[in-house]
Amino acid sequence: SRRASRTGWKAETTEAASPMGAPRRRGSSSDFTSSAEAARAAGNWRWLVIGWGDESFYTGTGMSLERVGDGLRALFWPGNKSVIRFTGLNVRPDEAYQNTDAAALALSPAGFEAMAASIEASFAAPPGEALAPTGMRELPGVFFPSRESFSVLRMCNNWTSDQLAAAGLPTTPMIDGLSALLALDLSWRAGVEWTR
Predict the structure, then answer these.
(1) Residue 172 reports pLDDT greater than 80
(2) What does pTM read for this prediction?
(3) Which of 98, 115, 110, 99 lies closest to 48 in space, CA to CA?
């Protein structure tokens, strides 16, 4: 089971959560998987939470004029570096995010593997090489450089939509830039029911 939840800036960003055992099992064989390595680096949690965003803005916290400027830069300047965040929860996502929308999504084993492979393709490190976390860490969890660029044309919700599409859910990543549009897309096309 995979959970997508609209979290962070309250209905402005998305993250996906999975029971921690599934990603870790992917690395229990002799084959190296960067997602299993990242899951282990995130710590000892019951649920793994994965998100993606602009390297500078996503790793920061608080509100200031400088941060507003950083957010505008992230949206409108081309070619911004991005990161993938791995963190965790010890309670179910719908319990942790009670003031935001959450939805439980059941994925087949093949769908989960396809999504994990898609996430791994987002890492900046070439396949088979060890991951190097970034040094920036105001938020809990661990951040890894991504090969993708962040902008208003490619935001965290588009990335989450891509991962869900890789898992076999009908999404339209091109229009899913806002979390409300992603939620609507998943409701209409995949029959997802959101809880609050």
Answers:
(1) yes
(2) 0.85
(3) 115
The model's pLDDT over 71-126, given as tens digits with 9 standing for 90+, comes to 999 999 999 999 999 988 999 888 887 777 778 888 888 998 899 889 989 999 87
Give the distance from CA 184 to its chain's centroid: 18
Backbone angles phi, psi at 51, to 5 degrees: -140, 170
- Picking from 122, 108, 105, 70, the residue whose alpha carbon sits closest to that of residue 182 is 105
Determine the Cα–Cα distance for residues 73 and 142; give it in Å rounded to an integer. Answer: 23
Do the beta carbons of residue 160 and residue 6 sit within 8 Å?
no
Total Cβ atoms within 10 A of residue 134: 16
Cα–Cα distance for residue pair 47/2, rounded to 1 Å: 10
Instruction: Decide: 51 and 14 in contact? Cβ < 8 Å.
Output: yes
Q: What is the CA radius of gyration of the chain?
A: 16
What are the E-state strand segments in the chain?
2-7, 13-19, 47-54, 80-89, 102-105, 142-150
Instruction: Give the separation between CA 23 and CA 39, rounded to whole angstroms.
Output: 7
